[in-house]
Write a structure and sequence with these properties.
Order of helices and strands of chain A: HHHHHHHH
Strand content of chain B: under 5%
Number of strands of chain B: 0
Radius of gyration of chain A: 21 Å
Oligomer: heterodimer
Helix content of chain B: over 70%
Number of domains of chain B: 1
Helix content of chain A: over 70%
Shape of chain A: flat
Structural class of chain A: mainly alpha
Shape of chain B: globular
Structural class of chain B: mainly alpha
Radius of gyration of chain B: 21 Å
Number of domains of chain A: 1
CATH architecture of chain A: Orthogonal Bundle
Order of helices and strands of chain B: HHHHHHHH
CATH class of chain A: Mainly Alpha
Number of helices of chain B: 8
């Protein structure tokens, strides 16, 4: 193992890890927003909105994220959408993650007993109040853990933007493998950083999950 | 530059060939991940500490890093240690191992949830431990685990697009070839997405049928 080489290049990997973290955070925020919108659409009273929500989930979960990213980044300019690679990465991955999060959020909401809403309505709360004061707070508790799984997948999915040349961890590893022919060392550098990011996120989610549980 | 789908039919032959490659690679990787998953699960549950721990480490690395990075390691790493495999074989190995780890998690849980009495009964009628596992416990565990493994296989199909990055001419790279000739990325990536979606729908259909069969046989 070439320790010297690793010592020489690791600062570049640290910079790249920072880009991966930025990508992950922005993608997670967009994904959560899309997930909340998607779940609202899927649970809507209006058939058209339900259909749009279902189509969103099915299409974006049914095709590879890499292709979605390529359509947005390379195909976008043909329909007047000009994005740089980082923006395309965040938007593409965020919309993709949103489809998965839609199902997570929807699953948590529909698993809250119907009686909760009925009881709230009986007590004179409006439909909105019942949703925001009774159903959602309980559902939010159930969402933390599965959303953590979505987050874990999303962080690993940020590697895909290497294919559109965003200089994040995987792209950096790929570039150095190409120039040094030391695949194992470069994998080790990038892999350790990924695992630190994923481990830290996992711990944060577990902490949050414990905080929101009623014991 | 608007959209023009009239260029698509002229390159449909490359796309269809790529589609066949995608199905072949996904099938081969799925088989590898299924049997690999069983082997990993047995190692994780039934081997001594000294063998089990290194496997745990490998599992942990596979679950904590992106598939794309793993593909780079396997493709270039094999070359470095003198094994020069065609890209598609490296792709199958990478995809297969990656999903074997995820399948192993599911199979481990399923094996543990098979009633202990099954193993005891099998031992009592004279089967060895290995035979009892192979003929009694694992078949029952596998039945329980087929629906969630189906989800992993659908994920595998979609992730097979990643092997285009190491130069395997499957559906995604075929679309890129067509784009190289026509400069029409939107049209061809959309066509590729449609093919993936169609294969995906077929897999979901098969999965639903299998689930129904299993729930009847129970």
């Amino acid at each position: 193992m070439d320790i010297d080489l690793m010592m020489r290049v690791y600062p570049f990997f640290l910079t790249a890890a920072w880009t991966t973290i930025q990508l992950s955070v922005l993608t997670a925020l967009l994904g959560l927003s899309m997930g909340a919108l998607g779940a609202s659409a899927r649970l809507s009273r209006f058939a058209l909105l339900r259909f749009v929500g279902a189509a969103y989930v099915s299409l974006f979960r049914g095709t590879p994220a890499l292709i979605q990213l390529f359509i947005l980044y390379f195909g976008g300019p043909q329909i007047g959408i000009q994005l740089d690679a980082f923006e395309a990465g965040v938007i593409g991955l965020g919309i993709n993650a949103g489809a998965y999060m839609t199902e997570t959020i929807r699953g948590a909401i529909i698993s809250i007993d119907k009686g909760q809403r009925e009881a709230a309505r009986t007590l004179g709360l409006s439909q909105w109040q019942a949703t925001y004061k009774i159903v959602l707070p309980q559902a939010a508790r159930l969402m933390v853990r599965p959303l953590g799984v979505n987050l874990n997948m999303l962080i690993k999915a940020t590697a895909l933007v290497a294919a559109i040349s965003v200089v994040e961890l995987t792209y950096t590893a790929q570039r150095y493998i190409g120039s040094t022919y030391k695949p194992f060392e470069m994998f080790l550098l990038a892999g350790v950083l990924y695992m630190i990011i994923i481990y830290a996120t996992g711990r944060a989610v577990a902490w949050l999950d414990r905080r929101v549980q009623i014991t | 530059m608007g959209l023009d789908f009239t260029v698509v039919p002229g390159h449909l032959d490359i796309i269809l060939l790529g589609c066949a490659w995608t199905i072949g690679i996904a099938l081969a990787a799925a088989l590898l991940s299924f049997f690999g998953g069983i082997i990993f699960a047995v190692i994780a549950l039934y081997t001594p500490w000294i063998i089990r721990q290194p496997f745990r480490l490998i599992e942990w690395v596979f679950m904590g890093t992106p598939l794309l990075l793993q593909l780079f390691l396997i493709y270039f790493g094999l070359v470095q240690i003198g094994i020069d495999l065609p890209a598609f074989v490296a792709g199958i190995i990478g995809l297969g191992l990656h999903f074997a780890v995820y399948n192993s998690e599911l199979i481990q849980t399923a094996i543990l949830s098979v009633d202990k009495g099954q193993m005891e009964a099998a031992r009592t009628v004279g089967l060895s431990r290995g035979q009892a596992l192979r003929k009694v416990v694992i078949p029952q565990a596998v039945r329980d685990v087929i629906p969630p493994i189906g989800n992993n296989m659908i994920a595998l199909l979609k992730d097979s697009a990643l092997v285009s990055v190491i130069g395997v001419s499957e559906l995604t790279l075929s679309a890129q070839r067509a784009i190289g000739a026509t400069y029409r990325p939107f049209e061809f990536y959309l066509v590729a997405a449609m093919f993936y979606y169609a294969i995906n729908l077929c897999m979901e259909w098969v999965q639903r049928r299998i689930e129904r069969r299993i729930s009847i046989s129970r």
